[in-house]
Design a protein that fits this description.
alpha+beta, Heat Shock Protein 90, 2 domains, 5-stranded mixed beta sheet, two-stranded antiparallel ribbon, 69% helix
Length: 402
Amino acid sequence: MEIIKNANIKLRTDGIRVFILIQLGALIFGAVFRYLTGYNSTAIVLTCFIVPTLFAYLFLKKEEVQKATHTLLITANFLMSFTSLTLGLHSGIYLFYFPLVIGYSFFLGVNKKRELYLYFLLTAILLFLTLFYSDSFKFFNPVIDTNARFQFIIFAILAFLCLIIEMWLFMKSIENSKNQLLEYIKKLQDAEGKHLQDIKDKEVLLAEVYHRVKNNLAVVSSLINLQINTLEEESAKSALTDCKSRVNSMAMIHQKFYEGKEYSNINFKNYIEDLIKELKSVYNPKNKKIDVFSHLDSNLNFNLSTAIPCGILLNELISNSFKHAFTFQENGIIEIKLESQNDLFLLEVKDNGQGFDYQKAAEKSSSLGIILIQALSEQLNGNFQFFTHNGTTFRLLFSNYK
């Protein structure tokens, strides 16, 4: 929009220059003509008006447009009043008031209401004084023109030409604004198109990154699985199975990002439901009946920085419940809750198994699972608690990392 403003300022400057030159030419001609015809006092006054008009032109040369505009308009107002007194309104000089008043809006700009009102008031006051107190200014040595009709026609034509010039400037200003606006819109559209293409390219690149990471994690999972098949010790197999499960939980997150329409967030509810199915197939003993229930909000949209640690944490908690909570039970229930309120999330994993003393385990155990739970909770900037009552309950309050 600055381009349009600059274009209108240039056009306004050109218009002011034209009217300064017109006024300057008219004053020089009038002063010489009145001097040659014997009206010396009138010629002197007109010569005095030449000085501020020259100042207006000098201001314009220095690119001080506001000073040039005010100097021109103030000089034009007093010149109109003086000419009306010397020639009389019957000469048709009042016709120049129309282009003068209309010119205010163009030269000053319609937004400058205070300045417009002041100039309207100045013109009204000078016109009022000219109409009702003209007898008080007889020392100007009024000019008597015997051919008033011819003079009226000349003034009417000149005033009409001034109006035509102003209308042309107005139309040119509107046309310039329209052209500049269309050009500005085109530039915005081109920039928008370029930005959209950049975003599309980055989305394609990001999708490819997610896809490759998922494939690489799948390769790691396959290698771990091959290693498991070569082992005989159950403890080693169990440790590698846990490791494989953690890798798969991360691979599933990257798969969700790759499949989703948005590459910055995923619907974590869908991820948890798929993770539960995956863990049930890996850890659920065939000789026991363990049911898993989930209570999840539908608007769980997590970014990658939150989804990865939260996914691994859930994997650790649910797999621990499957492996350790129901050692002496044939049946069991695991409940997963994830609720959101404002910018906070409450995660709860609960089972009705034999219970778990976290404080004792944290002091004596060097289990990787305990270390992971502590580290991942800290990574989520969350506060967690363990409760042992009719089983084990884990609660974590955290916020979505931005």
